[in-house]
Amino acid sequence: MDFSRYDEGLFKGHNRMKNLAQLGHDSDSLQQQRDKQIEKLKPRIQSNYFVQNKATKRKIKQKIDKNAVADSTLKQQLNQSLIENFPIANIDSVFETLDAQKKVMILENAVRRARDTKAQIDEQLIKIDKVDYHLVRHKIEWHRKFTLSFACFIFFFIGAPLGAIIRKGGLGMPVVISVLFFIVYYIIDTFGLKASKEEVWPPYMGMWLSSVVLFPIGVFLTYKAATDSAILNSDAT
User: Where is the chain membrane-spanning (predicted)?
Assistant: First the structure.
């Protein structure tokens, strides 16, 4: 296959082609974009569900400005005073005073508002999910650049003791153990990667899981080899 036919620009923006600085910068940008989209979602919900009387709002603001204080205790007293002076209306009692036609009109209007709000929320959540998709994969690639190097370091500590076993005689069992360690690493790494991509675990946890599991084993085997323990000496009695 002639890869020279492909345009480099097609892969240049992919997260796997970026270095650490680019991944970190783009992750921060995606996080800021996500936060902005969440902030845009709040007023859309509140505007459809919270309607405040303008006259009451003006009176409350005047009372707050007049009694503006910094002490938290006095603020609590002020809030309590506002609640007492401007009690919340009983919506059910107001609704019952209306005739049947107005009740139907209000209910239909409420259903329409609820549907519109749900549609807006669903649309915004789709945008947030798209940002999350790219954000998670940028974080995964950022951690992968460390975990792959660290995995080589771990397998050195696992392979060196097994090499000592091979040097002292006996080839079959060390090879089987080495293959088993690699299979275990691959299974754990695949499991952690999948959990991170599906946002079940945070990226750092999924990407470092295999290293956390195998590193103590490598240290243990290295220690046993250094102390010439019987566990690594096939000639030991």
Answer: 146-165, 171-188, 200-223
